[in-house]
Amino acid sequence: MTKIDYDDLKRGGIIQQRDSDYVILRIRNIAGRVDSDNLAKIGEIAEKYGKGYVRCTTMQGIEIPWIKFDDLSKVRKELDDAGILHGACGPRVRTIMSCPGSSLCKYGLFDTTKIAKKLDDAFFGKEKIKHKTKISVTACPNSCALPRAHDIGLIARLDMEFDESKCTGCGLCAEICKRKAIEIVDKKATITWEKCNYCGKCPNTCPFKAWKATRRGFDIYVGGRMGGEAQLGQLAMHFVPETEVIDAIQKCTDVLVNHAKDGERLSTFINRVGFEWFKERIE
C-alpha cells in the first residue's frame, strides 16, 4: 500500500477525520466572502461527495467533511475548475480574516475586503514560517474580527483635530462617544485624548465640521492567540498607512522566519526573545 502523507495534505487544507477513510477539505474564503455561484458549487460537492452539509470555520472559511479519500482528486478538480480556492493548515500563513469594512459597515474606515485580498496575495501559504500564522484586519476599533486574538492583527484608526471656533455645543459628538472622551463644557466640546480610541465617529457626526480627519492608518498588534495558552497581541506599530501595511507585515514575518525555532509560533517566539527585542527588529 502507498503510504499517505497526511502532513503534506494538511498544508493544502485537507485534514484526516477521526474515521481514517474520510477527510475534511477546507476552502479558502478571503475576508469571509463567498460568491453565490461558488456557494452553489460548494453545496453541490457536499451533496455529491460528502453528507450534504458544510462547516463554517472560526477563520471565516468553509469545510466539507465526509469526503472519501478515493474521491479527493475528483473533488479537488471540480473546485479548481470552478475557480474555488483551497484552504491551508500546517505551518504557514492562513486565510486572511476581516470584518465587513467600509463597503458595508457605517463605522468602517477602510475597505477591509480589498485589503484582505492584497494580504492574501502577498502572504497566503507563505513558506518557511515555523508555525501557523493568522492575520486579521478590522476597519475600526470595534475590532469585530478579533485582531488582538491573532498572530498579526490590524485595527483601523482615524486621527483628527478639533476647531473650537466651529463648535456650537450641540452635543452630538459627546452623545455618540462610547468612551466618554468628549464632554460639553460652557457650550463647547472638550476632549480627553487619553480616552480617545480614534474611531472616527466625530468627523462623521458633527454637522458643523468642528472635527476634521487628519490621517487614517492601522495599529498593528502582534503575538495574539487563542487556545490553551491564550494571550492578546501587543501594539507593535502605530498609524501605519494602508500603502505600507504589506511592508510592515513582511517585516514581522521576516523576523519570525530568520530567528524563530522550528515549531515556534509568533506569540511563543515573542515571549522568548522579549517584545522590545522584536519591536527593535521590525522598526
Outline the structure in words.
By secondary structure, the chain is of the alpha+beta class. It has two domains: 6-81, 2-Layer Sandwich (Alpha-Beta Plaits), CATH 3.30.70; 91-283, 2-Layer Sandwich (Sulfite Reductase Hemoprotein, domain 1), CATH 3.30.413.10. It has nine helices and eleven strands. The chain has helices at residues 6-11, 36-49, 72-81, 112-123, 172-176, 201-205, 245-259, 266-273, 275-282, and strands at 14-16, 22-27, 55-56, 62-68, 97-98, 135-138, 152-162, 182-185, 188-191, 211-222, 234-240. The strands form three sheets. Strands 5-6-7-10-11 form a five-stranded mixed beta sheet. β8 and β9 form a beta hairpin. The model has no long low-confidence stretch (mean pLDDT 91).
Chart the SSEs and their pairings.
Blueprint: H1 6-11, E1 14-16, E2 22-27, H2 36-49, E3 55-56, E4 62-68, H3 72-81, E5 97-98, H4 112-123, E6 135-138, E7 152-162, H5 172-176, E8 182-185, E9 188-191, H6 201-205, E10 211-222, E11 234-240, H7 245-259, H8 266-273, H9 275-282
Parallel strand pairs: 5-6, 6-7
Antiparallel strand pairs: 1-2, 2-4, 3-4, 7-10, 8-9, 10-11
